[in-house]
Fold this sequence. Notes:
The chain is of the alpha/beta class.
Amino acid sequence: MRKYNLLKDLPKSKIKRVANTKTRTIKERIISSYRDKNLYDGNRKYGYGGFKYDGRWIPVAKRIFKKYKLKKNARILQIGCEKGFLLHDIKLLYPNSEVYGIEVSNYAVNNSMKSIKKNIKIGSFTEINYQDSYFDFVIAIGVVYSLNLRDAIRSLKEIVRVSNNKSFINLASYSTPKEYWMFKNWTLLGSTILLENEWLEVLKHTRYNSDYYFTNSKTLALVSK
Length: 225
């Protein structure tokens, strides 16, 4: 098990993000929980504010194959693949690879990249319908911590089961009460926010032994005002 930032090549926010009790209320969280157009292509207060392909995942796709020493025909699964931007870039760079995605949002799947749309299916994050060790690499971004603790454990166990000991996840964490509330006030879908050592205990419990990284108020450049 290794702490590693697979996503470090993604563009960093150039401005501080203000996170307080007025940033996003329960009303915004209710609307975003439907994971429909409002979350992806609606007002920024409900989510992305326009979820468009811009090629930013190409460096991540390259890093995946390099760091995990994957063959060009590797079989890859992204849990929570949304519109499939990363899967598209993997297939673009490594046309012999097999890419698959699982998503819970009908809107995201219906508006996914045409190049890999047929490889994405609506499915559960806690019951992955693939055989044991079926994939050479599994990635789940913003997935595990969007679940309650019980389902987060179930999802992690499924990642362990279907991956061939090569995977990456990110987890919502905090170090101080202030950091907790900044993240809580910012996140729309985050449900399980734990101390880093608590997450490590969860990973140990699920026998997860691959790569992880913590998403928190610092990595998101959050400030409270």
